[in-house]
């Protein structure tokens, strides 16, 4: 009985398994190191060797007011009496507390905060 003939297939299988495992591991490591989202833009100025990330909000964000306009949710800029956006969200379908708030007007600063607030009322 030749022992090398019995071991060769097992050794070949073992080597193949190790190579495939290594390949899968390297592939997963490579995929895990890829950034999932583009990095935020950085300003050209830096302090202490660190770059500052620019904000998407302007330095003086606009003030918006959400309120009832003809029974629908509307957005007004600053002190304007004319809405610059009106949504198909009927105020009478909202909870009583929200209806009362929107009668007086809900103020918010910046487009990001505005978008979040509108999402709360729309969804």
Describe the structure.
This protein has 123 residues and is of the alpha+beta class. 42% of the residues lie in helices and 27% in strands. A hairpin with a 2-residue loop joins strand 1 and strand 2 (50-53). The longest helix is centred in the N-terminal third of the chain and has 31 residues, at 3-33. The N and C termini lie far apart (77 Å). Residues 26-52 have low confidence and may be disordered.
Keywords:
123 residues; alpha+beta; four-stranded antiparallel sheet; two-stranded antiparallel ribbon; 3 helices; 6 strands; 27% strand; rod-shaped
Tell me the β content. Answer: 25-35%
Tell me about the biggest sheet? 4 strands, antiparallel
Q: What is the succession of H and E elements?
A: HEEEEEHEH
- Give the termini separation: 77 Å
* Sheet with the most strands: spatial strand order: 5-4-3-6
Spatial extent as radius of gyration: 30 Å
Total beta strands: 6
Structural class: alpha+beta
Poorly predicted runs:
26-52
Percentage of helical residues? Answer: 40-55%
User: What gross morphology would you assign?
Assistant: rod-shaped
Discrete helix count: 3
Name the average pLDDT: 73
């Amino acid at each position: 009985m030749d022992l090398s003939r019995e071991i060769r297939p097992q050794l070949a299988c073992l080597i193949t398994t190790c190579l495939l495992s290594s390949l899968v591991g390297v592939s997963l490591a490579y995929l895990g190191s890829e950034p999932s989202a583009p990095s935020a833009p950085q300003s050209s100025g830096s302090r202490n060797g660190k770059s500052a990330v620019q904000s998407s909000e302007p330095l003086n964000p606009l003030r918006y007011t959400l309120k009832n306009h003809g029974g629908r949710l509307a957005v007004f800029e600053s002190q304007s009496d004319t809405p610059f956006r009106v949504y198909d969200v009927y105020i009478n379908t909202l909870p009583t507390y929200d209806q009362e708030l929107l009668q007086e007007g809900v103020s918010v600063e910046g487009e990001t905060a505005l978008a979040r607030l509108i999402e709360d009322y729309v969804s």
